[in-house]
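JOB MANIFEST
job_type = single_chain_structure
chain_count = 1
residues = 289
[input]
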Amino acid sequence: MKDQRDVTTPLNTVPEGMHTVATGGGGISADGDDNLDILGLIFVFASYIFVIVTFPLSMFCVFKVVRQYERGIILRLGKLHTDPPLRPGLWFLLPFVDKLEIVDVRTRLFTVPKQQVLTKDAVPIFVDAVVYTRTNNPIASLLNVSNVHLSVELLCQTTIRSVLSNMELAEILTTRDLTAEFLQAVLNDTTCRWGVKVERFEFRDIVLPESTQHAITAESDATRESRTKILQAESEEKAATYIRRAALSLADAPGAMQLKSLQTLTDLAMHEKSTVVVVPIDLLGNRSN
């Protein structure tokens, strides 16, 4: 393993391919000091003696397994002893002086509880979200924050309120995806120091008060009605233009007027209950004069 030196146990009982952890001066402490103090060396030496004296029973308590989705961190006498973290496999630990901390590096999903947010234009909304996080620095997540998962969840709640309170309702509704990406970037600025990366942020639901919903619905209905009236007026204007053009064309051609009259009579005659009274066109013309 990189940055770690394999050591052979005093009884030479470590199977081939099994990982061992550097001891004594080979470990890397949190403050950069490679050498344990005198008292620490005494405890380490006593731990080795205990393993030798209690062999083979000690073999049941000195080996630990790190699973594929985990990373292991050894604290020796309270100090960081392994950097980088232990990868999956079987590892040797000294009893009484070594403590193995396991960090799960799988993607974690949690839901931000629904909370009320007052937008910039003073509209109360209820927002909840889904967040996907992953531990990418196990040592930082263990040493820099006491409860990393709870800290990330609380940070998400406060960040949502802070960002959405500076936005208007229309902006939130129309730029929902962009707002989620911005929140993800803001969260990563803080969680990176905790060894956690926010892989995805999604709004689960944005609920408006009933009064606001009714107002938006009324506004939408009014907009649609106004648009319908405008389209209807434009259609009537176009129809009137075409009728005027047709009337002018018929007036310029007297024969066309007679053909139109005959066509009208034919259409009326097709109805069984219709009574057709034929009036000479000249008579109509004299009356109009």
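[summary]
DSSP finds eight helices and eight strands in the chain.
Residues 1-32 have pLDDT under 50 and may be disordered.
exit_status = 0
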